[in-house]
Design a protein that fits this description.
Layout lengths: L8 H10 L39 H13 L3 E2 L5 H11 L5 H18 L6 E2 H12 L13 H15 L1
Parallel strand pairs: 1-2
Amino acid sequence: MDGFGTNGKYMRQCTTHDEFVQQHVVVVATTTASTLLDPSILRPGRFDVEIALGLPTESARRAALTNLVAGTPVSTDHQSTEALVAALTDRSEGATIGQLHAIFQEAAMLSLRESIDVTEIRAAALERACCQVMGESKRVDVHHGDNEEDEELEDKLNAMSLE
């Protein structure tokens, strides 16, 4: 399956509908994999302007992560919010804004799998989700206090990251 679906189904549909477009209609298309685009979609008259945007800088990722943390019930596991954002910023180098959102969605799912009654996403779940979304397969550094529950969770997460 390519970026346009099986056998280019979506690309064909897009070019077919393009022929019926009336005046005063603007179509905006985005991709994170421009090298996978079928050349026919880029023919003159279809998409006249191409704007290339790079990946978010470190400061842009930090700002996005700060907003995501502020809008999400997060337990920082005995570290400051700034330290959590800094750790996630470092681990998310090369991530798109969509991937940063995916980290928080995956962390929420990890938290729900741990307990259906969860009310906050733990920092450990965010760090684990970051590893999953970014494709890392290294040990998770969990910042925890001195209680057995945190140590058990750290062991579980590290065992999962080694599988």
